[in-house]
């Protein structure tokens, strides 16, 4: 049995517990596990010492309780023969005349392993050393007896289910300087399971979520954290019942705490993405080289049981480049814009330039570039008059975009010029013998190149530089005229995809106090995206709409993100797109534009191979000097074939 399209479904459970009532606790685990099985969960993590209850204190050294724990574990083992979920439960385990705080791995009617807690706290309320031992070197890999059965015992085991390897650590293990999960991940664990009993204190939950997120990021792993909750003793502490699932720095799911009943979180962890990052980010392999040679692991294989659930229980955002709505939106947008400002400011300083020339079309890209330019000049203490916005109406320019371009330049207080390209382009058509009634690629690209020539020459004339406006999405699709709008002296939007450009312009609109500027910016956001190289409709509206020609930018940005960030195949991107755009685009539309994306992405690499400098903004960029290096004549045959087979 293998993973479900590279995903595996896991659960973190905070069950209701009764202290020292093993029968009740075992029955609760059985009931929840049956429910989780019906939801397609493959591995479920329960809290630390959930079989006995964490707060048993000195009762943990009572033989009656410990005997009952063994019987309870054996009952779970028998139950697991009919339950297709790998159960990881916490229990006190006797071994070599010592007691250990352990996780027990159960499935298919078998005990597959017992992993003791490595670091036993000895402070304040958590003085576990009163009852538990730390595993000694001799106990690193051994066996323990549970109900007359000998079971793997030690800290150096990984457990493999559905082709996924799990490492185990217990509560305090996460909080130490070098958690056991660091070693387990370097040894091949894709997911870390943490059985915990962490009480709640003021501010502790936020810190814990950050800790889990950061450890999953450092390990480039999934992290499943289950902590004790309702039913534990409140003599001195209160347990809030936490169930958190993270993946490589992102919290995928978390439960509602403080419930007076059991609760759990379920999520599908992307093993394919995790393994791609480990392969791609070479420092992970470098760390593997520094593992102590004495550290070895044994892999315990857990035979998979049949499951037919092929659904995807995971939030897949339609706009992976756009900040999620919330209190951090302003901070994130400021950060993006400041990266652009910093890059442009340094380029101006390095070239001793105090003049910028920007082609202003009334569209999204040139609007963002102009907004960034004005903020850059403000930051440098330069007069905005040093920014020269040039609007260059042509055959397809509409009143709407022209008026917005003029209004924007006026409200931002920059210098402006207007130069019609129609006479020059008509002369050019005459020079090369082109019939201007033929609206072909020559007709379109001649206009783009004429505009670029004007901007370059005006920059020479004013001692300035041309600020490029093209964005990351256009670079990916090659939606730019080679040596036309493709060229500039600095591409300030080079790392910003179209969906993010639109979002940032709207953000600028919401943060300005100038009503005219806000109105203009919002109208620009609402204007159909177009190069305006074909004459308008009879009513003066835009005829040439980019998204009618190359497809929706929200689709292409989605395809771009998963192609570059994770190296996913068309088949997997299609799977994710169906989830993200369910109810928005049909399957055939997604397939059609996915083919278009990969065809253009490969065919247009030659434009990216000589693209101007520009700042990287997010995790995905197409600079040939850093993030993306691909031969201009690479074949797309493999990708197109898979697209055809969808």
Short précis:
With 646 residues, this protein is of the alpha/beta class. The protein has 21 helices and 22 strands. The protein is 40% helix and 18% strand.
Give the terminus-to-terminus CA distance: 23 Å
Mean pLDDT: 93
Show unreliable segments: none
The percent range for helix content is 25-40%
Annotation field: number of helices: 21
Give the strand content: 15-25%
Class derived from helix and strand content: alpha/beta
Tell me the number of strands. 22
Give the overall shape, derived from the CA principal axes: elongated
Rg estimate, integer Å: 30 Å
Strand arrangement, major sheet: 15-14-13-12-11-10-17
Summarize the biggest pleated sheet: 7 strands, mixed
Walk me through the structure.
- This protein is of the alpha/beta class and 646 residues long.
- The protein is 40% helix and 18% strand.
- The chain has 21 helices and 22 strands.
- The strands form five sheets. The protein has a seven-stranded mixed beta sheet with strand order 15-14-13-12-11-10-17.
- A hairpin with a 2-residue loop joins strand 10 (157-161) and strand 11 (164-170).
- Helix 19 (587-603) packs antiparallel against helix 21.
- The chain is elongated and about 100 Å long.
- It starts with 6 loop residues before the first strand and ends with a helix.
- The mean pLDDT is 93.
């Amino acid at each position: 049995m293998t993973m479900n399209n590279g995903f595996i479904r896991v659960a973190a459970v905070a069950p209701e517990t009764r202290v020292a009532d093993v029968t009740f606790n075992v029955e609760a685990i059985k009931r929840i596990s049956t429910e989780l099985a019906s939801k397609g969960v493959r591995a479920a993590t329960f809290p630390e010492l959930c079989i006995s209850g964490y707060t048993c204190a000195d009762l943990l050294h009572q033989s009656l309780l410990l005997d009952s724990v063994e019987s309870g574990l054996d009952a779970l083992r028998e139950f697991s023969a009919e339950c297709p979920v790998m159960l990881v439960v916490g229990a006190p385990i006797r071994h070599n005349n010592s007691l250990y705080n352990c996780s027990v791995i159960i499935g298919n009617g078998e005990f597959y392993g017992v992993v003791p807690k490595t670091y036993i706290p000895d402070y304040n309320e958590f003085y576990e050393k009163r009852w538990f031992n730390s595993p000694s070197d001799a106990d690193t890999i051994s066996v323990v007896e549970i109900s007359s059965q000998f079971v793997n015992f030690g800290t150096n085991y990984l457990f493999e289910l559905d082709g996924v390897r799990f490492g185990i650590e217990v509560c305090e293990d996460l909080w130490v300087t070098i958690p056991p999960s660091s070693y387990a991940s370097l040894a091949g664990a894709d997911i870390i399971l943490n059985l915990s009993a962490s009480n709640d204190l003021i501010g502790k939950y936020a810190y814990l979520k950050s800790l889990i997120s950061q450890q999953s990021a450092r390990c480039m792993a999934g992290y499943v954290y289950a902590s004790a909750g309702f039913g534990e003793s409140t003599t001195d502490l209160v347990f809030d019942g936490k169930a958190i699932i993270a993946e490589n720095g992102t919290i995928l799911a978390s439960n509602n705490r403080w419930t007076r009943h059991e609760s759990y979180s379920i999520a599908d962890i992307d093993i394919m993405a995790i393994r791609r990052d480990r392969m791609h980010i070479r420092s992970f392999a470098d760390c593997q080289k520094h593992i102590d040679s004495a550290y070895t692991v044994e892999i315990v294989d857990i035979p998979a049981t049949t499951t037919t659930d092929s659904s995807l229980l995971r939030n897949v955002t339609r706009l992976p480049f756009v900040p999620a709505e919330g209190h951090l939106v302003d901070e994130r947008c400021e950060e993006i814009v400041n990266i652009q400002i910093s890059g442009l400011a340094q380029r101006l300083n390095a070239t001793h330039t105090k003049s910028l020339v920007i082609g202003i079309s009334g569209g999204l890209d040139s609007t963002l570039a102009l907004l960034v330019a004005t903020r850059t000049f403000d930051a440098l203490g330069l007069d905005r008059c040093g920014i020269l916005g040039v609007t260059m109406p042509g055959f397809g320019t509409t009143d709407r975009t022209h008026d917005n371009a003029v209004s924007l330049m006026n409200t931002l207080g920059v210098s402006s010029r207007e130069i019609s390209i129609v006479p020059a382009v008509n002369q050019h058509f005459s020079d090369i013998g082109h019939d201007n009634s033929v609206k072909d690629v020559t007709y379109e690209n001649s206009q783009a190149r004429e505009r670029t020539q004007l901007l370059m020459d005006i920059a020479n004339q004013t001692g300035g530089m041309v600020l490029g406006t093209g964005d990351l999405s256009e670079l990916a699709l090659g939606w730019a005229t080679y040596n036309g709008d493709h060229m500039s002296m600095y591409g300030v939007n080079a790392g910003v995809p179209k969906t993010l450009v639109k979002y940032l312009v709207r953000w600028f609109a919401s943060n300005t106090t100038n009503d005219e500027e806000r109105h203009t910016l919002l109208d620009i956001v609402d204007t159909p995206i177009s190069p305006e190289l074909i004459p308008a409709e009879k009513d003066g509206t835009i005829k040439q709409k980019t998204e009618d020609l190359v497809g929706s930018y929200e689709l292409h940005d989605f395809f771009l993100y998963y192609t570059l960030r994770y190296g996913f195949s068309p088949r997997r991107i299609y799977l994710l797109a169906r989830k993200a755009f369910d109810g928005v685009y049909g399957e055939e539309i997604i397939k059609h534009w996915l083919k278009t994306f990969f065809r253009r992405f490969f065919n247009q690499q030659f434009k990216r191979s000589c693209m101007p400098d520009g700042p990287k903004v997010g995790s995905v960029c197409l600079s040939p000097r850093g993030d993306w290096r691909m031969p201009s004549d690479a074949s797309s045959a493999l990708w197109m074939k898979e697209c055809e087979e969808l």
